[in-house]
Amino acid sequence: MNAEAQALTSGTTVAPRSIGELFFAFMKLGLQGFGGVLPVARHALVENYRWLTMAEFTDIVSRCQALPGPNIVNVSICIGGRHFGVRGAIAASAGILGVPFVLLLVLGVLYSGYAQVPEVANALRGVSAVAAGLILGTALRMAASPRLRTWRTVFAVAAFAAVSWLRLPLALVLAAIIPLSIGAAWYAQKRGMSGS
Amino acid sequence: MTDRLGILAMDFAMLSLLSVGGASSVLPEMHRSLVEVQGWMTSREFAELYSLAQASPGPNVLVVSLFGWQSAGLAGAVVTTLAMVIPSSVLTFYADRLLWRAAGAAMWREIIDNALAPVTVGLVAASGVLVASANVNHVLSLVLTAACAIISWRTKFHPLWMIAAGAVAGIAGIV
């Protein structure tokens, strides 16, 4: 039984075999991400390659979201860096950015010629409806984390409401909610009730 | 042109370190710099380049490549993209190495992970709603969005098939 098959049956994870595998994996998932790479990244990293469990994925995305920078690029930096150091971080981020960068510039050149074609606009509308569903599905999967099985859900609702309904600037929302959430988690840990 | 590259590099390197939560959180600041201060593109061009980046595969941050390209050609695209990505990536690399994997920080890691997970779920859900809201007046688009949300939540169906189905449904005039 190979490592991947073992991981499949035991529910554990495997490591990327080489920098090349890391680079091409991130290149593939970068190219599949329309309207955001997060849902594809979850599918690829957790279900396909099994480099991360769903819980690890949620934790890495959370940490990367709290740091400045594009979230999915930060995720590639963390995963690449953990397995192959600086070279891994460069390979993973170059993989996720490189080909989409070239494609986007080509699209930019073509765009002026095709912007008026109705099929192009219609296809984009269909794609964006699907993309929205994929992002919401990812949120639902992440919400299954044990870290949300308590009163902490209130912080998920607060972050959602602040950004989605109140339209507050993200930096402000994070600056307000994260210290409160950390304070609450610290207090729970001190009281020994974090797992309940 | 060299002046423009220098300004792009400085501006976007700074935005890189300010973009907590992702590149889209500093989009208003990019608009201020490129449209209002420098006058390198109109507001309409800015919005068009943004939609184009959304429709193209890859991380959403690559919208800055189009902004750089519009401002200073191919060199502008390269400089802007690297300026936007490198500072935050270096920070993330060392944060991951020093904070998250340091021995003895296990308790704090647990606290911070517990604290951040719900906030992340809320923000991811909010960005899903934001993308969906562009189609809010098409009932069938919202049905498609809901169906894809449930499929990707409950099954391991590959996202790319749903994307393709969405493009076909769009061209066929269903959504």
What is the helical fraction of chain B, as a range of percent? over 70%
Helix content of chain A: over 70%
Major beta sheet of chain A, specifics? Answer: none
Give the SSE order of chain A as H and E letters.
Answer: HHHHHHHH
Total strands of chain A: 0
Q: SSE order of chain B, as H and E?
A: HHHHHHH
> How would you name the oligomeric state of the polypeptide chains in this document?
heterodimer
The proportion of residues in beta strands of chain A is: under 5%
Number of helices of chain A: 8
Quickly describe the structure.
The complex is a heterodimer of chains A (196) and B (175). With 196 residues, chain A is an all-alpha fold.
Please tell me about this protein's structure.
Chain A has 8 helices and no strands. Chain A has helices at residues 3-10, 19-32, 38-48, 54-66, 71-114, 118-143, 153-165, 170-190. Chain A has a domain at 3-123. Chain A has 196 residues and is an all-alpha fold. Chain B has helices at residues 2-18, 27-37, 43-55, 63-100, 106-133, 139-154, 159-171. Chain B is an all-alpha fold. Chain B has 7 helices and no strands. Chain B has a domain at 1-102. The interface between A and B is large, with 101 and 99 residues.
Secondary-structure map:
The complex is a heterodimer of chains A (196) and B (175).
Chain A: H1 3-10, H2 19-32, H3 38-48, H4 54-66, H5 71-114, H6 118-143, H7 153-165, H8 170-190
Chain B: H1 2-18, H2 27-37, H3 43-55, H4 63-100, H5 106-133, H6 139-154, H7 159-171
Helix pairs in contact in B: 1-4
Distinctive features:
heterodimer, A: 196 residues, mainly alpha, globular, B: 175 residues
